[in-house]
Amino acid sequence: MPKPSLILHSARLLDPVAGPLPHTALAVSDGRISALGDDRGIRALAGPATTVLDLGGAVVTPGLVDGHIHPVSGADLTHGLDLSGCTDLAAVREALARAVRTLPPGAWLHAWGLDPNVFGDRPVETAPLASVLHGVPALLLLFDAHSMLASPRALELAGVDGPRVFDQAAEVVCDEQGRPTGLLLEDAACELVERAAPQPTYEERRARLAAALRAMAAAGLTGGHAMDAGGDSLRLYAELDEAGELPVRLRVAPWCQPGADADAVRALIERQGTGGRLWRVAGVKLFMDGTIDNGTAWLEHPDCHGESAHAFWPDPQTYTGIIGELHRAGVPTATHAIGDAAVRHVLDSVEKAQAAGGTGARHRVEHIETVPDDTLRRFAALGVAASMQPTHCTDFTRADHTDNWSRRLGEERASRAWRCRDLWDADATVVLGSDWPIAPYPPLGVIAGARHRRPSRDLSLPPHGPEQALTAAEALIGMTVNAARAAGEEHEAGRLAAGHRADLTAFAESPLTTAATDLPGLPVVLTVLDGRPTHRAPQL
């Protein structure tokens, strides 16, 4: 039997399901947990090449996995001016003005994280920012990454001077005279202007991605369900993996967009299972709607502006047919569905695919921001995972429903926000994630949000839907056991057990006994991926 490559001792081992284990040490061989026991017994297994770490009483859990994340696009989108801390238009203008003063002549200004709530009751458009963006080509990504504001100069350089027609529910928003207001909804519209901006080099993008992934590992992440594979994403993952620089295990789901023909769907099926040592293509990502904040979600009844009344797919039955084809091929799917009509259609489509027979492919719904009671138990009945991002609720809506999201929906639907507790109690597999770059990726912040339901920037504010909070143990399961279950990997991941992957996270104290409001500050002392430390606190 080979000697362990890694031994951790003087630790408190915490399994998400079994709770504290009667062991203080574990050994790792070939990227798997090979033994658990007491310090003396496990340390006796060490060989000359074994790395032996004294954790000094740290608490070890299975590695935390972000159930919904965008590593490559996130690294690309977050390199500019961060507007996420701006809570009103004055703060946005001030931040933009500072950035403009440092721009070389003719350079583009890129910003991200803009909260539509800063516009209050005014339309989301560039007019209120005209005084600071005059003559400057600027792209301001809204927090949901489904929309952006393009300055008049940016629109001019891109040749966008009026409405356009798209294959998906995208829009260049125009005024009554047909002139663009600056607001671009969904990817197809945003790309019209993005293409006109100077692009970073491949080497710059690779370095940004590597830095972002290292930071994720330092925050305690060992894995992520990457919900896109656009452009050269797979090449970037492959290069980092081959160079030994991929510190997070990635499960990648390429997109299937409206307009995809039979050849495109076949290519997605054929791509499944490709990858490297620490990343692989596993699943397909689809969209059933956009976002409530933009009026591009699909609701059973329109919002207060008469918007969010249509699916992202011009013909939703085309989506249903593709789900059936992917299910027959054994391909798991993850569908972005925010509004109640979108969620219902996804569940109907999965039910139809399952009724037609085929494989046991596991499907999931992403976001699920507002749903009625009659949909809750369908998740468990169909084996569909509920992928939730609790910090979208805590950081972008308000308990008093004065935010844009809540005002659009009205009181009844806003009271059904991010029903983590109800879905959990209905036996759904609830997976937690950040959707970075939409919300910050540190997993302890995601777990904290699921527990306290308060805005992270001011924890003294009241919680939004406190009845939907998860317990400490449930929230930890949502980023370990349930992430593995949604991926069909529960036999080898998400638990502290012999034979399971040695993807581990160690904390200074237990995440179960640390108060939810203190959890984001809990030190991560060690992160281990595939038996190899990817982050070590200085004391180790």
Task: Explain briefly what this protein structure is.
With 540 residues, the chain is of the alpha/beta class. It is 30% helix and 20% strand. A six-stranded mixed sheet has the order 3-2-7-23-24-25, with helices on one face. Strands 9-10-11-12-14-13 form a six-stranded mixed sheet, with helices on both faces. A five-stranded parallel sheet has the order 18-19-20-21-22.
Radius of gyration from the alpha-carbon trace, in angstroms: 23 Å
Beta content comes to 15-25%
Q: Helical proportion?
A: 25-40%
Structural class: alpha/beta
Give the number of helices: 19
**Which sequence of strands runs across the widest sheet?**
3-2-7-23-24-25
Spatial gap, N to C terminus: 28 Å
Residue runs with pLDDT of under 50 for 5 or more positions: none
Average pLDDT reading: 96
- Number of DSSP E strands: 25
Give the overall form: globular
Describe the largest sheet: 6 strands, mixed
Can you characterise this structure?
The chain is of the alpha/beta class and 540 residues long. It is globular and about 80 Å long. Helix 13 (390-396) packs across helix 17 (443-452). The longest helix has 17 residues, at 202-218. Strand 15, helix 8 (233-242) and strand 16 form a beta-alpha-beta unit. The mean pLDDT is 96. The strands form 5 sheets. Strands 3-2-7-23-24-25 form a 6-stranded mixed sheet, covered by helices on one side. Strands 9-10-11-12-14-13 form a 6-stranded mixed sheet, sandwiched between helices. Strands 18-19-20-21-22 form a 5-stranded parallel sheet. The two termini are 28 Å apart. Helices cover 30% and strands 20% of the residues. The chain has 19 helices and 25 strands.
